[in-house]
Design brief:
This protein is 35% helix and 13% strand. It is built from 9 helices and 8 strands. It has a 5-stranded antiparallel sheet. The longest helix has 16 residues.
Length: 279
């Protein structure tokens, strides 16, 4: 029995769907009958279909825990050509944060909740309990491998696996494209509309600003996104009534800069939020 097949059967017995990977770390290509998904796709693919191909087809969707499939003649031939074992994390209820270099590993150690880690050729896999949508390049050197994706199996790893934290779920969330303001952007005026404040009492505005400052201060990761969303929330509530002043904007900028944001980024986030709301 090929060594990779033995490892795959052991992993599959724990409920983790596996598949062979040939040289190049990419799954085997589809057979001629399944090319371009002409067969309708594997049942566990997004485009579910009736395909019952005995070959190792459809990339991550070929992953299985069925020992009869894993040891079938067609799969045995694939295991003899395989250079490693891969698995479908999402189908096993797992998420792999793939850290591709030392800088990404340093970032994860400073930012993410600790969990089981596995050394890779250049970095580490951090494995969490819980599935999410996969995404590539969520930040430099960092990919998310979970549903509709595959990861190499490089051993059991070390440490205790923890539940998938919100900081990881938030990684694929992107800010809108930056709209570059003029060079004096840090002094973008805050007011708009000039009308009477409909909130009846200044305490309403003060409470909203205090909550915004607290939300920024409590951000433990994804600070850029938190700052933008907070600015957007404040402007959506107060941006049209004229009650915001430059002093209020300065308070929000100060809170953001205390978390490491630059004045330029604060100005960009404020301008993007205003443009999003049409102010």
């Amino acid at each position: 029995m090929p060594a990779h097949l033995r490892a795959a059967l052991t992993l599959a017995a724990t409920g983790v769907p596996v598949l062979p990977l040939p040289a190049g770390k990419r799954p085997f290509g589809n057979c001629p009958a399944c090319a371009h998904n002409a067969c309708g796709g594997r049942p566990n693919m997004k485009s579910a279909g009736p395909c019952q191909c005995p070959d190792v087809c459809h990339a991550w969707a070929a992953a299985t825990t069925d020992p009869a499939v894993l040891t079938s003649p067609a799969w045995r031939a694939a295991w003899r050509r395989a250079v490693t074992v891969a698995y479908h994390p999402g189908a096993a209820g797992l998420t792999v944060v793939d850290l591709d270099d030392a800088a990404a590993v340093d970032w994860a150690r400073e930012t993410l909740l600790g969990t089981r880690t596995v050394e890779t050729t250049r970095g580490e896999h951090w494995i969490y309990r819980g599935a999410m949508q996969s995404a590539n390049a969520v930040r430099p050197g960092v990919d998310i491998k979970s549903t509709m994706s595959y990861a190499r199996y490089l051993g059991p790893g070390t440490g205790t696996m923890t539940d998938l934290p919100e900081t990881v779920r938030a990684l694929p969330v992107k800010e809108p494209p930056t709209v570059r303001p003029a060079l004096h952007a840090a002094a973008v005026p805050a007011g708009a509309g000039g009308g009477a404040c409909p909130h009846r009492t200044p305490a309403y505005l003060e409470g909203g600003l205090a909550m915004a400052e607290q939300r920024i201060a409590e951000a433990r990761s994804a600070v850029h996104a938190t700052v933008y969303r907070t600015f957007l929330a404040v402007l959506s509530t107060h941006g049209r009534c004229g009650c915001l002043t430059d002093a209020h904007m300065t308070r929000l900028f100060t809170a953001a800069q205390a978390k490491g944001e630059s004045p330029r980024h604060c100005a960009d986030a404020w301008t993007n939020a205003r443009n999003r709301l049409g102010l």
